[in-house]
TrEMBL record:
Name assigned to this protein: Uncharacterized protein
Organism field: Rugosimonospora africana
Upper lineage: Bacteria, Bacillati, Actinomycetota, Actinomycetes, Micromonosporales
Length: 71
């Protein structure tokens, strides 16, 4: 996870130049899918690689399914 300050408007919208800036500042190659989360109250932009989100969700789902079978 990467966190950048600013670059988010009051509606939580992120402009394309912010995405490019975020990629550059975090050394993320162009073309890698990202999930950008605007935390407007804190004036922050949180950046997750989509592959990381996918892995975390798969782990969570496996844990949920495993706990149902354990009990």
């Amino acid at each position: 996870m990467h966190v950048l300050a600013g670059r988010v408007n009051a509606f939580g919208e992120v402009w394309s130049e912010s995405r490019d800036y975020a990629r550059q500042m975090c050394a993320i190659a162009t073309g890698r899918p990202l999930l950008l989360v605007a935390l407007v109250a804190h004036d922050l932009l949180v950046i997750h690689l989509a592959s990381t989100v996918t892995r975390l969700l798969a782990d969570l789902h496996a844990e949920i399914v495993g706990s149902r079978h354990a009990g």
